[in-house]
Amino acid sequence: MNKLLIAGLLLAVAHPALAQAAKSPKDAMIADADAATARAPVEEQAAVSKGSVTVKGKAIGYTATAGTLTIRDDNGRPTGSIFYTAYTAEGANRPVTFFYNGGPGSATVWLHMGSFGPVRVKTDKPVYVTPDQYAVTPNPWTLLDKTDIVFIDAPGAGWSRPLGDKQAKDFNGVDQDGDAFARAITRYVAKNNRWKSPKFLFGESYGTLRSGVVARMLEERGVSLHGVALLSTIMNYGVRQAGYDQNYLTLFPGYAATAWYHGTLPGQKPADLDGFVNEVRAWVSGPYAAALAKGSAISAAEMDAVARQMHAYTGLPVDFLKRAQLRVELPHFMTELLRPRGLSVGRLDARYTLPPTDLNAASPDEDPASTAITGAYVAAFHDYAVKTLGVKTDLPYKLSAREPGWNWDWSHRPPRGGVQTTPNTAVDLAYTMRANPKLKVLFLNGYYDMATPFYGAEFDAAHMLLPAELNRNIKFTYYQSGHMIYLAESELAKMKDDVAAWYDEALK
Q1: Residues sharing a CB contact under 8 Å with residue 4, sequence separation 6 or more, in sequence order
Q2: How far is CA 127 from CA 39, 179, 351, in A?
Q3: Largest CA distance in the chain
Q4: pLDDT of residue 6
Q5: Per-residue pLDDT tens digits for 100-143
Q6: What is the mean pLDDT of residues 453-475?
């Protein structure tokens, strides 16, 4: 090799720009952009800060850790960087609770900033408030007096990302997602030596379906739980598909509660919501269920009688109910209930209202409950994460893992039987309760939640078909709120007392 060629090669090595000179401008730009792309770290990260919160007159000091957990496959290869925020207080073998939202594919910003952490976005009444009007305040209803708290973002959401040759789609499925969470929880337990700590799961919405899978996977892997809290439950998607009679039965008590709230009942409004809902429950499980079971064989007289009773419980027009063949789809309910007032009601929280673009529409333009809070929660979280938690990353915080081409694998392999094409993870939770008879389960339900109706949670629990002694490990609580019970301060306070009492029972 001649000296001139050697010198050229050495110069190229010393000056990388010269080595790339042969690339086209487009290729060079792509290479530069790829080199500058923000990527999740394989090495676990942690930003640590201190804080204090007062609960019932007692100051609780805590350590906040915002960081990542690297999950690995069975061969030790990294598969995901999972973002979490942990709040821990002093004390030996304190309980630890793992919180997550649903979606599927949602980040856990909602539970983190609204429920039981040491700070919360201040919300109360079901109205739209702009982000600048929201304040992040100390949370007097935090659960830190009972348990350490770990909020976890789903793979591909928040600041959680795939690693190695894994892609977001590799986690997009009932069992794939459940496995990722089980591995993240196990990693947190191992990393922080929390093996002897009592452990709890707290999932919201799709997170309740996830909890059935995660609880079973953890139990099978030697990580036993003390309790599973299910906020706004949907564990059985099979019976809630449009067209199934059970779907309409599940929704109707919530329709009646919503009508009670908005004052659309044709008769005198009952003073007691709980008593009214109990009456509706009894009617739904009896005459209404019997009527729907007959299908088109129902007589005209019975259809008329059932439609008139539905009208009495909701105020919906009798003719409208007959045209619907007694089966009121949720979008139709949302637009029809307050149509005379020029309003549609919310899905996540039927107390929220918005005027529709088209007063003749059969479905609402959007969910007013979601619209009312999203901007405020996002702004508040970003400000808090950077200024207080000390998070430093170039990755964008994704509210959801759902992107163009997103697809969720709804198939599920339960602990026994064949593969489910539509998941019912109440089967998994029942299996786990049989394997771990000390496990306590708490269902937390909002009367005005149309996304995951409370009557559906009752159906799921009743069809776990547990023996009487295990059924005693299940508790239900109810609130005059919607999907996100914690938005209303009065209901959050009540829920805190209920959950705190449940922890005391679970830890006996």
Answers
A1: none
A2: 38, 38, 9
A3: 103
A4: 37
A5: 999 999 999 999 999 999 999 988 765 555 556 677 899 999 99
A6: 96
* Summary count for the chain: helices (H), strands (E): 17, 14
| One domain, residues 344 and 460 | no
Residues 63 and 207 in one domain: yes
CATH number at residue 162: 3.40.50.1820
What mean pLDDT is predicted for residues 64-69?
97
pLDDT tens digit sequence for 249-276: 999 999 999 999 999 999 899 999 999 9
pLDDT (0 to 100) of residue 11: 36
Integer Cα distance of 251 and 337 in angstroms: 14
Q: Are the C-beta atoms of 484 and 123 separated by less than 8 Å? A: no
- Mean of pLDDT values over 403-427: 92
Range of the domain at 396: 46-237+376-506
Question: Distance (Å, rounded) from C-alpha 343 to C-alpha 266?
Answer: 18
Q: What are phi and psi of 440, to 5 degrees?
A: -105, 140
Spell out where 73-169 has E strands.
78-89, 96-100, 119-121, 136-138, 148-152, 161-162
Q: Which amino acid type is present at position 39?
A: R
Structure tokens at 89: 């207080």
User: 């019932």: which residue's tokens?
Assistant: 56
For residue 476, give the nearest of 441, 451, 507, 506 by alpha carbon.
Answer: 441
Residue 62 resides in a domain: yes
